[in-house]
Amino acid sequence: MSDALSIYFAGDLFDHKDLIGNALLASHIEQESSGRYKCLLPQDFEQGSNRKEHIRDQDLKMVMEADLGLFNFDGADLDSGTVVEFIVAKQLDIPSVILRSDFRNAGDQDTKGDKWNLMCSFYPRTEIVSINGMEWYQQARTGPLSVEETIKALYTRLALQLITAFDKARSDTPLATEPDFMKKLYQWAVTFPGAGFEEFIDNKNWVAETIEKKKRKGLIG
């Protein structure tokens, strides 16, 4: 759909479980939202031979252009790249959803707090979907279901919960409503990464076009 809202899908992509899990969840989000949401998977845009600045710049540009962000906070310690992308999204007031399916307790918050480092918590326009992945898997495989049926049941349930969270995050009031401020904010976002990021953008109208696109979708005041 041409009017679909884009979601930058941030998380581990280092082994077959990460790669296939990301792709399955992205596909179910698109299906269950009837195409209203479409995930951008960094793994689909990266090549194994690309290294260093190009990968970083490509991912940061995708974060900045996306309408929303999905950040996978699984693991005993959060993936550092995902944390950087999350903070960039929050600096630009991009509506975001944090997903944690890891049932292990981690981080430095109390038992009622989030299961990760407190420096990654408490940001506005951010919804949290925290589930017990093992429990949801066991519930999905109840009965004589095949692996494929179990996958469909699990990812459909998760996608529907995430779609509700995306709807909530993007309905929250934007922090900044002055166009000039947002223009300066995005211009700074192009400047601060350094290492040739401005040259990588290679479009003097990129900031204005990005802001206008998000304004049309009601994501910027």
Task: Explain how this protein is built.
The structure is a single chain. With 221 residues, this protein is an alpha/beta fold. The protein has a single domain (5-174), classed as Rossmann fold (3-Layer(aba) Sandwich), CATH 3.40.50.450. 47% of the residues lie in helices and 11% in strands. It has 8 helices and 5 strands; from the N terminus they run βαβαβαββααααα. The radius of gyration is 18 Å and the shape is globular. The model has no long low-confidence stretch (mean pLDDT 92).
| Helix percent band | 40-55%
DSSP summary: helix tally: 8
Major beta-sheet overview: 5 strands, parallel
Share in β-strands = 5-15%
Q: What is the name of the CATH class?
A: Alpha Beta
Would you kindly provide a brief summary of this structure?
The chain is an alpha/beta fold and 221 residues long.
Topology diagram in text:
Elements: E1 5-10, H1 16-32, E2 37-40, H2 53-65, E3 68-72, H3 80-91, E4 96-100, E5 126-130, H4 133-140, H5 147-171, H6 179-191, H7 197-201, H8 206-216
Parallel strand pairs: 1-2, 1-3, 3-4, 4-5
Helix pairs in contact: 1-5, 4-5
